[in-house]
Amino acid sequence: MSIQVGQAALFADVVRDRHSVRKYDASWTISKEEMTELLQEATLAPSGANVQPWRFLVIDDPELKKKLLPIAYNQEQVIQASAVVAILGDLRGIDKAEQIYSAAVEAGYMSEQIKAQMLQNLRGFYADPASEVVKRAALIDGSLVSMQFMLSAKARGYDTVPMGGYDEKSLRSAFHISDRYSVVMLIAVGKAAQEAHKTVRLPVEEVTFWNAIPEEV
After folding, report:
1. pTM, rounded to two decimals
2. How many angstroms separate the CA atoms of 57 and 140, rounded?
3. What band does 1 get if pLDDT is binned at 50, 70 and 90?
4. CATH assignment of 33-92+129-195, among 3.40.109.10, 3.40.190.10, 3.30.1490.20, 3.40.50.620
5. What does the alpha-carbon distance between residue 74 and residue 70 come to, in Å, rounded to a whole number?
6. Which one, of 187, 128, 184, 143, lies nearest residue 161 by Cα?
């Protein structure tokens, strides 16, 4: 019981302490090994039908961060942070479904029959990779993995800031991101050099409805 309480308290600290930081220690680097561990933890996030369409472009080369700076409207965290991770959604995520489900069968998590049925269903869902339903699925899963990445980073003593301010067309051109991938967001990650600005949240009572949404006045 005490272990469970301790874990709950630790999680509460991570959630409450995570804020969007925009000033970073430019001398701090995150090794490829640790970044890989962070991303591994992030990929434990939920995924629709376990397709896992998230893809990560880690930009930690100083020259490439300089290249990214004007694309991200000169937000200084781009060059100060240890890395900027572009969270992408693979609109042809079904291409890895056979690999994923075969591993699940081998692990004893599903039968061959269920695997076959799941693949059949997915082929219908992904029939048009450019469809809004596929884009929406990639956005949902990409957002889930993004939040998990930021929480995992905070738990390790790092800070992050999710970024929606960038020129997507220029980003695609500069980093050769094809139309196969949707761009979900950029996330800067590193050691904070300055605390984040404090923010407030609406009372949960004002944003929660129980069983029905009241009519607007």
Report:
1. 0.94
2. 18
3. very low
4. 3.40.109.10
5. 5
6. 187
Burial class of residue 50 (count of CB atoms within 10 Å of its CB; 0-12, 13-18, 19+): middle
Helices 132-155 & 32-42, crossing angle to 10 degrees? 120
What is the rounded distance in angstroms from the CA atom of residue 209 to the CA atom of residue 183?
32
pLDDT at position 137 over 80: yes
Strand boundaries in the chain, DSSP class E: 54-59, 83-90, 159-163, 181-190
Q: Is the dihedral of CA 106, 110, 112, 118 positive or negative?
A: negative
- Pair of tokens at residue 203: 């009372």
- pLDDT top residue among 71 and 2: 71
pLDDT band at 98 (very low <50, low <70, confident <90, very high): very high
Q: Which residues contact 134 (CB under 8 A, 6 or more apart)?
A: 91, 125, 126, 128
Enter the tokens of residue 194: 């300055």
